[in-house]
Amino acid sequence: MAAETASLLPSQAFPSQPTKITSIKTLAESPGLTSIPATYTFTPDLHDQVICVPEGSIPVIDYSLLISGTPDQRSKIVHELGRACQDWGFFMVINHGVPENLLSSILDGCKGFFDLPEEEKQEFKGNHVLDPIRSGTSCNVSVEKAFYWRDFLKVFVHPVFYSPTKPAGLSEISLEYSQRVREVARGLLKGISESLGLEGSYIDKAQNLEQGKQIFVGNLYPTCPQPELAMGLPPHSDHGLLTLLIYNGIGGLQIQHEGKWVNVCALPNSFLVNTGDHLEILSNGRYKSVLHRAMVNNKATRISIAMAHGPSLDSVVSPAPELLVSSKGNEPAAYAGMKYKDYLEIQQSNKLDGKSCLDRVRIPAV
């Protein structure tokens, strides 16, 4: 199919296609679009078999019990958090206290940004991976040979808050949303610290989360006429400690569990949470960052908002020394220390490719 598409003239395959694609939204809305450009096609192995796990298999964490439950309830939730990080690298969070109307408002605000005219979105395109506001398409078009069926908005929202000035109201909503989600993330990290046998405040203090980098990532995955050939985002792990995600009810997120891909459907008003590379580093591999990917469909546009939470940019992340000493003797560090800013810049400047960035700091076993 890809070869047939490539052989067609642009005017035949992609009516009204602009000479330079600045957004997938523009391409997807081209009148009469029935196939995708060859530069957006992927080999079949990226669309390998997906399994369905029994309902209730994916861990669910009741946040209210973590912050205000009885000592026994809290102890149980801390244990469940540890098991979720160890066995899945992924869990859902319910009863988190973030109002449902705020979740819907931030999704609406994000949609409003993607609905802006192309020339207005271009005002916020950014030029460098550490620019505080960047919008664009695919992931990193300067190094990609095949492009992803995705538009994005990336904004640094802590320790300094930034926001696009358009559409009206987005800045105020994203500020409130960012603050509320950050509070939940820090509460989860406190429980995760305890699940590792560390002080509850360990991760917060060791990674200077008061100045921690929080990044708002809005994703738009328009309908695709050939979803079996396209990818929203390829298999990858996230930088940072935890990513909290919501979406507009249209599925597409898949996580890898025990070598198989699993479709994820969120419980109502929940956060989907995945562990990042820096939690794997800090825990010396006890908790692994999870591989995940985004698929597209030909029926409905998917919007998701991922909120990444990492250390301060100047924090050097390495395995917690307390985890390298046990009753069995000293355990070797499995990862070399690297400043978070350097790791972030490396990952965001290269192709998304599994855990290739984490492999750069992995210390080979002797």
From TrEMBL:
SUPFAM superfamilies: Clavaminate synthase-like. InterPro entries: DIOX_N, IPNS-like_FE2OG_OXY, IPNS-like_sf, Oxoglu/Fe-dep_dioxygenase_dom, Plant_2OG-oxidoreductases. It comes from the Eukaryota. Belongs to the iron/ascorbate-dependent oxidoreductase family. One of its GO terms (molecular function) is oxidoreductase activity. Residues 211-311 form the Fe2OG dioxygenase domain. Keywords: Iron, Metal-binding, Oxidoreductase, Vitamin C. This is Fe2OG dioxygenase domain-containing protein. Pfam families: 2OG-FeII_Oxy, DIOX_N. The lineage of its organism: Eukaryota, Viridiplantae, Streptophyta, Embryophyta, Tracheophyta.
